[in-house]
Design a protein that fits this description.
Radius of gyration: 19 Å
InterPro entries: Mitotic_Regulator (IPR052945), Sel1-like (IPR006597), TPR-like_helical_dom_sf (IPR011990)
Largest sheet: none
Order of helices and strands: HHHHHHH
Helix content: 55-70%
Distance between the termini: 59 Å
Structural class: mainly alpha
Number of strands: 0
Protein name: Sel1 repeat family protein
Length: about 180
């Protein structure tokens, strides 16, 4: 499986990756997509393009529009472990993503001169954030933003701050007596 990184952030990312892998093994498209991102970026593991692509395909086959759009992009560019460009396969995946309302897929199809039927009704409200999405944000996105911000000498946005590194901030107003 993935190798353990020496930092506490690395261990947290590894734990999150293990959770995503468990869900992906049960057929969860969101879990597979998160695994793909972790393996592609090396979050909680060594970078592994083959595993990233395998999990991305699983998520796309599971009907996740952002995975379908990402896979279409890889086919259109021949990147990310895809052997050569395949515009027909890219278009197929973008059509599937666009049918579910993925704006990026709609835009890319329109740029290629392909008409995309608009939905008659507004898209459904976004689903409640799953535990996997929250784990991904907490253990992968936030700590990475904090680390990169510190490397660049700046401070990360407060909504991405690592709660383990920041002192608690009181939301109560301060009064002098």
């Amino acid at each position: 499986m993935a190798e353990l990184l020496p930092t506490s952030t690395g261990r947290a990312q590894l734990d999150a990756l293990r959770t995503y892998e468990e869900h992906a093994a049960k057929g969860d498209a969101h879990g597979a997509f998160n695994c793909s991102v972790c393996y592609a970026r090396g979050l909680g593991c060594s970078r592994d393009r083959d595993k990233a692509l395998r999990f991305l395909r699983q998520a796309a086959d599971g009907g996740l529009p952002q995975a379908q759009a990402q896979l279409a992009y890889l086919y259109s560019t021949g990147r990310g472990g895809i052997d050569g460009k395949d515009d027909a396969e890219a278009e197929r995946w973008w059509r599937l993503a666009a049918a579910q309302g993925d704006h990026d897929a709609v835009s890319r199809l329109q740029k290629r001169g392909i008409a995309v039927a608009r939905r008659a009704s507004p898209p459904p409200p976004p689903p409640e954030r799953s535990r996997l999405a929250i784990l991904f944000d907490d253990f992968c996105v936030g700590p990475c933003a904090v680390f990169l911000g510190k490397l660049r000498g700046g401070t990360p946005p407060s909504d991405l701050a690592d709660p383990l590194l920041e002192e608690p901030v009181s939301t109560e107003p301060e009064y002098e007596i």
